[in-house]
Design a protein that fits this description.
Blueprint (H helix, E strand, L loop, with lengths): L9 H13 L3 H13 L6 H14 L2 H14 L5 H13 L3 H10 L3
Helix pairs in contact: 1-2, 1-3, 2-3, 3-4, 3-5, 4-5, 5-6
């Protein structure tokens, strides 16, 4: 690592990701989500929630579906926060059927 270079752990990445989403910079958030993976970091539930929220903000259904596939592969789909974000994203992207399917999968 070069002098002065700071290596972020997943918590640091999540903090930056959340700030982009909160500030309405969903495109930057999605770029950061891709960078996180390129850096070899494994997204956690918080990372996925922010990525899904960014997709919802962009109305990016196909990108949201791709993130959803990653969530399934990671085993995080049963997390209530991830599930809520997926329902919200599908609804905001106009896929009410997918939103309903996710809602029905959520633990009661």
């Amino acid at each position: 690592m070069a002098p002065g270079t700071v290596q972020l752990n997943i918590l640091g990445w999540n903090k930056k990701l959340r700030k982009y989403v909160k500030d309405g910079q969903a495109q930057k958030a999605m770029q950061l989500f891709q960078q996180i993976q390129q850096e070899g970091m494994s997204p956690d539930t918080f990372t996925f929630v922010q990525a899904i929220n960014a997709c919802a903000g962009l109305g990016a259904l196909e990108e949201g579906r791709h993130v959803h596939e990653q969530i399934i592969q990671s085993g995080c789909e049963s997390d209530v926060f991830v599930g809520n974000s997926l329902v919200d994203m599908y609804a905001k992207c106009g896929s009410i059927e997918d939103a309903w399917k996710m809602f029905k999968k959520m633990p009661s």
